[in-house]
Amino acid sequence: MDKIIKKVKIFAEWFIEWFVFIAAGILIICAVNFALFSAREELPKDILVNILLSAMLTAAVTAVFFMVEPLKKSSMLLWFFMHFGCLTGTMLVCGVRFGWIEFDLFGIIDMAVSVAVVYAFVITIYYILDKHRADQMNRRLKEKYKDEEEM
User: Fold this and answer.
1) Alpha-carbon span 41 to 55, nearest angstrom
2) pTM (2 decimals)?
């Protein structure tokens, strides 16, 4: 039972973290697309709810994928393409359902490019924050062991 609770807790933490990053990324890509390609002056209210829903779905997919990391470095590329494919599929369904794209070749390519841009944005932000956390933990460990050696 403790293992299940621990996995649910890890999933929830990762889900929240990925949700924030992905929602920001989707909001940015939607704002850019809307500003460049829409004739309307205002963003419809329902788009904000749709962004949150699509971010929740893709955050759930991402949290699951990060809980099942590849066992070997050689399978990392396959893991990456599977993750990207699942995100693209999820966003295609959302895009068609929410009226963001037409389900034709151009719409699929448009959504795949949008997913790639959001993916690159989110992974870059995640990498920068993760590197900062690792550097901070290493610095604290060095300080701790330096203090213990001096005693």
Assistant:
1) 24
2) 0.80
Which string of DSSP letters, residue by residue, matches 24-50? HHHHHHHHHHHHHH---SS--HHHHHH
List the structure tokens of 51.
């962004």
> Up-side HSE of residue 84: CA atoms within 13 Å toward CB?
18
Number of residues in the chain = 151
Tokens 């929602």: give the residue. Answer: 23
| Helix axes of 105-150 and 2-37: crossing angle, nearest 10 degrees | 130
Element (H, E) at 151: none
Give the model confidence (pLDDT) of 72-114 as tens digits. 777 888 888 999 999 999 999 999 999 888 999 999 999 999 9
In the numeric block, the tokens 């396959």 are attached to: 78
Residue 99 region by backbone torsions, left for phi larger than 0, else alpha for psi between -120 and 50, else beta = left
Angle, CA of 29, 33 and 37, to the nearest 5°: 175
Tell me the one-letter amino acid at 16: I
